[in-house]
Sequence to fold (77 residues):
Amino acid sequence: MFNQQCILRLYPSHSANGSVYLLKDTAFTRQVALTYCGGYTADGEYLFTAVDNSHSVPFEESYEEWVPADIEFIPVK
Fold:
């Protein structure tokens, strides 16, 4: 319905394969999340996204929160 391509599965871990970010919801952070992270969830104030360690993400604005996590993108199609 909303062009969802995967389900994001997260497991907090200190030896993680990625990171989860909580950012201010701006046009820039939405574009970065789509380009580098594979997507996001946003409510108009904050944006939640995850990225694996194979990508470096150019977040211009400082993130609100960050957590290391094992990330798995499960295809839905």
Q: What stands out?
A: The two ends are 12 Å apart (CA to CA). The mean pLDDT is 81.
